[in-house]
Amino acid sequence: MEGKVTEDNKGGVVVNIKGIRVFVPASQTGLPRDAAMSELVGQTVRLKITEVNRGRKRVVGSIRAVASRERRERAEKIWNEIEIGKHYEGVVKSMTSYGAFVDIGGIDGMVHVSEISWNRINKPADVLNVGDKIDVYVIGFDKENRKISLGHRDPEKNPWKIFTNTYSVGDIAKVKIVKLMPFGAFAEVLPGTDGLIHISQIANRRIGQPSEVLTVGDIVDAKITNIDNEKQKISLSIRALSEPAPAPRREEAEAPAEPEEPEEDALVYEVSSDGVATGEVPEEPAEE
Length: 288
Hints:
mainly beta, CATH 2.40.50.140, six-stranded mixed sheet, five-stranded mixed β-barrel, 11% helix, 40% strand
């Protein structure tokens, strides 16, 4: 039946159904053990009548019984219709260091911390709160073990997609140094997209470590020297911007000049097989 919660007390809440007071014990409200009963006052709820004592004019009901049954029905509907890529509006129920559990209407799915935001975050609580309503989509599911993996990041805001639509190999980008390592420096090209400047590509001289030249937070120009779409890796070079243009290739430098037409009256030489050059003076035109 359906009624409105009119009051709360130490033992539970009272629901008014067509003028009849129905008592719902705290354990049957469906609220967490440490929640205040007053949260339900004023709400319209569905409950199941579990006891009627006509002599004492006492009626007892359970909100939890109805909620549990409806949740099971919704869960079965989801499992029957679930598919990869399907979107749901979910509610964040709890969080751990590695992800957030989201109720998508009868079933809790897990959004791993790496699937919460395109930006770097340390833990889910950096961007989410319990109770938040968020849009999620199915990444994977296991019907046998009743597990669902969810994603929250908007595919259209994929930094790699934005990067590849913006830059190509050979382009020069203004990048921000975000991390120094013994072998080089990581630089942010666009929010959520980093590239590596190998230590050999930081300066046009030999250096022992990146910190000799760079500091975290520096903004520098760098040339994009390689893009690995499969591994989503970017190679950058500062050194390439200070090096002179490459010399012409040897084949080009040694290429023979275009033969010129001999001038009139020029000697035309022939070289025999033994290397001896012979010449012949052209005949003068006959007089008329």
